[in-house]
Backbone:
């Protein structure tokens, strides 16, 4: 299978705190991987390494067979980090146009905004959007460049049920088109809806890896 992103024996510490402890992890083309684990387990650190925002202390990290910091690797990546915001004074349409302009064949702005229910807000300043609309815009921006891999860190935190389900539909469309998805979430129903495979990390190591039902039977994950 075609491995799009991988970490081999990766360690990462912040001062005295070990975030990742020799972790091995890979995402292959066409799968949707749900990453579960308590706060502080190392989920965001792993995503930051795979998307080139941080470097490992030791071990190997690859994105499309390259160093994740390489612009060539990142051209095929869409991502929504956990703590991120949109430029308050730019209009929604301008923001999508700007991000889309970095890609060879972006999704047309109007089509993308309509898909995420943001068409009526196209001329609003991003700072005037509700929190839920901002989250939807950030996920839309992750998809604008038709990436081969999308990494989403808790994409639906703070969204109401309807907005979450709309987002799930858009991500299902992306998957149906052959896209690969790596997503962290605190919502088990979200992982069940989206993911074909679940990886549970705790204390900087993988403690379980398998299909959703298999993981449910092995690990008590009614609450993550």
Residues:
């Amino acid at each position: 299978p075609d491995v799009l992103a991988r970490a081999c024996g990766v360690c990462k510490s912040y001062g005295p705190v070990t975030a990742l402890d020799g972790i091995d992890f890979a995402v292959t083309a066409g799968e949707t991987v749900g990453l579960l684990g308590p706060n502080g387990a190392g989920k965001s650190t792993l995503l930051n390494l795979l998307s080139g925002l941080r470097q490992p202390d030791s071990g190997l990290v690859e994105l499309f067979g390259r160093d994740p910091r390489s612009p060539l690797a990142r051209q095929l990546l869409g991502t929504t980090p956990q703590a991120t915001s949109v430029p308050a004074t730019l209009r929604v349409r301008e923001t999508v146009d700007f991000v889309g302009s970095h890609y060879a064949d972006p999704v047309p702005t109007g089509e993308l905004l309509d898909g995420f229910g943001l068409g009526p807000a196209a001329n609003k300043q991003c700072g005037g959007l509700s929190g839920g609309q901002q989250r939807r815009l950030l996920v839309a921006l992750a998809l604008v460049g038709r990436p081969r891999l999308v990494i989403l860190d808790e994409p639906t935190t703070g969204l109401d049920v309807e907005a979450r389900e709309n987002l799930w539909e858009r991500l299902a469309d992306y998957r149906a088109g052959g896209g690969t998805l790596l997503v962290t979430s605190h919502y088990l129903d979200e992982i069940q809806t989206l993911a074909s495979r679940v990886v549970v990390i705790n204390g900087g190591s993988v403690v379980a890896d398998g299909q959703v039902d298999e993981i449910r039977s092995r690990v008590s994950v009614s609450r993550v």
